[in-house]
C-alpha cells in the first residue's frame, strides 16, 4: 500500500431475520478480515432486521440471543430495522440495546415521542444520531436510516422522520460542523429509497442497504454514491473497500461485492453460544399459557374452530361488527391439555398485529368471493410480517356466508349476513382484522378501509393466548359453528 493512500474495509450484513444457523459462518468471515486489516481500518455493520420473533431463540430471550451473537461477532454498529422497531416494546429494546449491546445503535431519523401532547422528540441514551470513526487522520461519519412506518411506530411511542430530509440535514451538518471526510449511510429503507437517497442527497459516499432483501453482487453507482447490499438470511456478507487519499482525505476508489457464505466454515465457538441461548429460550418458552379440555383444529383450505376463535377474539376485543383473519396464519391446530408458549409460537409464528377499520360491504364481499378461489387459498406470501406458507381462506366472526360451490369462480357467493341482517354493499362496517391486509396483501380489497387503527404491541398469538386461556364451553361451541354455509357443509370434519 502506498504511503499516499489508506484503504478501509467495511463488512456488512442485513435482514438475517434470526437465521441463527448462518451466523457462525459470518463470524468466521469477519475474523478472517480482522486478521488481514490493521486496527481501525475495518468496520463491521448490520443494516437491520437481525431479529425475528418467529424464531424461538429470539422470542424466548426477547432478542438477547441476537445481541449476544452480535457482540461475539464483533459488530461496530447497527441500524434499527422494522423488525426491531415494530415488534419489540421500548422496555425490550432498552434491555437489549441499552443494557446488553457492546456496539453502537444508530437511528438518525428515529426518536421517541416525549408524550404529554407536546410532540417533543427525544432519543434514548443507547440510540445515536451518528457514529464518528477516526483513523489515521480520516474522519468517517456513519448515519442510520429506518423505514418510516409511522402509523405503527406511533402506537409504540416512536417517530421516524422522513429519511431523505433527515439525511440531507445531517450530511450537511456532518460535513460542515463535524468535519467528516467521508459519510456512510446504513439504510434499512429498501433499494428504491436507497437510489433516491443517492440521487437527492449529495455527500454520501457509500450506502449499505437492506429491508427489500436485495442482493447486489457488486456495488451500484448512483449519483455520487456507491450502494451495496447482501440479500437476506445470511447467505451473503457485504464487503466494501474504500481507498482514501491521505492528503485530501477523500475516497479515490470504492469497490464492493457480496461474498457467498456457503463455503465459509462455521465458528464452533459461536455455534456453542447459540446452542446455550437456544436452551435458555426453550426453557423460557415451556411456560404454560393455557389448558384446553378439547383439541382445536386448524385448516388452510376451510374455516376451523381455531381460526374462527381468533376472528371472534379480535371482533370482541375491539368491539367490531365483523372479525376476519386468514387461515394461513395458523400452521397447525392445538392439542388438548397444556398449551405452552413454545407450541403457540410454532402454531402462530407471525409477528402480526391486529387492526380495525371501517370497510364498505362491497369490499368485504369481494374478499369473501376471493376466499373461495383455490389459487388464492394456496397463494404463497412473503414478508409484511407473515411467517406462514400460504394465504389460506378467510375465517370469520359476526358474519354468515352462503355460497354455491358448483357455481363458476367469481360467482359462488350467494348471500351474506352481518348479525341478523343482510350485508349491504354500500354500508360501512367496523372490521377487526390483521395489519398485513392494509398493505394490499392477499385480499387487496381489505386495504380499502378508512379510519385504520393499528393495535400494538399485541401480536395475534397474544390475542389467541388470551382467548384460549379464558375459553368457556359456550365460546368453544360458538367457534365450531360454521360461518360458511353450502350444500352439505355441516361440520369441520
List key phrases describing it.
493 residues; alpha/beta; Purple Acid Phosphatase, chain A, domain 2; 5'-nucleotidase,  domain 2; 2 domains; six-stranded mixed sheet; 15 helices; 28% strand; disordered C terminus
Compile the SSE list and pairings.
Elements: E1 5-13, H1 23-36, E2 42-46, H2 56-59, H3 64-73, E3 77-79, H4 82-87, H5 90-100, E4 104-106, E5 110-113, E6 121-122, E7 127-128, E8 131-135, E9 138-146, H6 150-153, E10 158-160, H7 163-176, E11 182-188, H8 191-200, E12 206-209, E13 220-222, E14 225-229, E15 236-245, E16 251-260, H9 268-284, E17 288-292, H10 305-317, E18 322-326, E19 337-340, H11 341-347, E20 354-360, H12 361-370, H13 374-377, E21 394-397, E22 399-403, E23 413-418, E24 421-422, E25 428-434, E26 450-454, H14 460-469, H15 473-479, E27 484-485
Parallel strand pairs: 1-2, 2-3, 3-4, 4-7, 9-11, 11-12, 12-14, 18-25, 22-27
Antiparallel strand pairs: 1-15, 5-6, 5-10, 8-9, 13-14, 15-16, 17-19, 18-21, 20-25, 20-26, 22-23, 23-24
Amino acid at each position: 500500500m502506498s504511503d499516499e493512500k489508506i484503504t478501509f474495509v467495511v463488512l456488512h450484513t442485513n435482514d438475517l431475520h434470526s437465521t441463527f444457523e448462518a451466523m457462525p459462518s459470518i463470524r468466521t468471515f469477519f475474523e478472517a478480515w480482522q486478521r488481514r486489516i490493521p486496527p481501525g481500518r475495518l468496520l463491521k455493520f448490520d443494516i437491520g432486521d437481525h431479529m425475528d420473533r418467529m424464531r424461538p431463540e429470539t422470542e424466548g430471550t426477547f432478542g438477547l440471543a441476537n445481541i449476544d451473537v452480535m457482540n461475539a461477532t464483533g459488530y461496530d454498529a447497527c441500524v434499527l430495522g422494522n423488525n426491531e422497531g415494530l415488534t419489540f416494546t421500548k422496555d425490550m429494546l432498552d434491555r437489549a440495546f441499552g443494557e446488553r449491546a457492546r456496539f453502537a445503535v444508530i437511528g438518525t431519523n428515529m426518536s421517541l415521542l416525549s408524550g404529554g401532547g407536546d410532540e417533543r422528540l427525544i432519543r434514548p441514551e443507547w440510540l445515536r444520531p451518528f457514529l464518528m470513526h477516526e483513523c489515521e487522520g480520516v474522519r468517517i461519519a456513519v448515519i442510520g436510516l429506518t423505514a418510516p412506518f409511522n402509523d405503527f411506530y406511533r402506537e409504540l411511542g416512536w417517530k421516524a422522520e422522513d429519511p431523505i430530509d433527515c439525511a440531507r440535514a445531517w450530511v450537511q451538518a456532518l460535513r460542515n460542523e463535524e468535519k467528516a471526510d467521508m459519510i456512510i449511510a446504513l439504510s434499512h429503507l429498501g433499494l428504491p429509497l436507497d437510489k433516491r437517497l443517492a440521487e437527492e442527497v449529495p455527500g454520501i459516499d457509500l450506502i449499505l442497504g437492506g429491508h427489500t432483501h436485495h442482493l447486489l453482487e457488486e456495488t451500484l453507482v448512483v449519483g455520487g454514491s456507491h450502494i451495496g447490499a447482501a440479500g437476506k438470511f445470511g447467505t451473503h456478507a457485504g464487503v466494501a473497500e474504500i481507498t482514501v487519499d491521505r492528503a485530501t482525505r477523500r475516497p479515490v476508489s470504492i469497490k464492493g461485492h457480496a461474498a457467498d457464505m456457503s463455503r465459509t466454515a462455521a465458528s464452533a465457538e459461536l455455534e456453542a453460544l447459540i446452542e446455550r441461548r437456544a436452551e435458555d429460550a426453550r426453557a423460557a418458552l415451556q411456560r404454560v399459557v393455557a389448558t384446553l379440555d378439547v383439541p382445536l383444529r386448524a385448516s388452510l383450505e376451510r374455516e376451523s374452530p381455531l381460526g374462527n376463535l381468533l376472528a371472534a377474539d379480535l371482533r370482541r376485543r375491539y368491539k367490531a361488527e365483523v372479525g376476519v383473519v386468514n387461515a394461513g396464519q395458523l400452521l397447525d391446530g392445538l392439542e388438548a391439555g397444556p398449551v405452552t408458549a413454545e407450541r403457540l409460537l410454532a402454531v402462530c409464528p407471525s409477528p402480526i398485529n391486529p387492526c380495525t377499520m371501517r370497510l364498505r360491504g362491497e369490499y368485504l364481499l369481494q374478499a369473501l368471493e376471493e376466499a373461495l378461489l383455490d389459487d388464492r387459498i394456496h397463494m404463497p406470501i412473503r414478508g409484511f410480517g407473515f411467517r406462514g406458507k400460504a394465504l389460506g381462506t378467510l375465517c370469520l366472526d359476526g358474519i354468515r356466508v352462503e355460497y354455491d360451490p358448483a357455481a363458476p369462480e367469481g360467482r359462488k357467493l350467494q348471500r351474506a349476513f352481518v348479525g341478523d341482517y343482510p350485508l349491504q354493499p354500500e354500508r360501512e362496517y367496523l372490521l377487526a382484522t390483521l395489519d398485513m391486509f392494509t398493505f394490499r396483501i392477499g385480499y387487496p380489497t381489505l386495504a380499502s378501509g378508512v379510519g385504520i387503527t393499528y393495535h400494538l404491541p399485541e401480536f395475534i398469538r397474544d390475542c389467541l393466548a388470551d382467548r384460549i386461556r379464558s375459553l368457556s364451553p359456550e365460546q368453544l361451541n360458538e367457534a365450531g359453528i360454521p360461518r360458511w354455509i353450502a350444500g352439505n357443509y355441516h361440520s369441520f370434519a
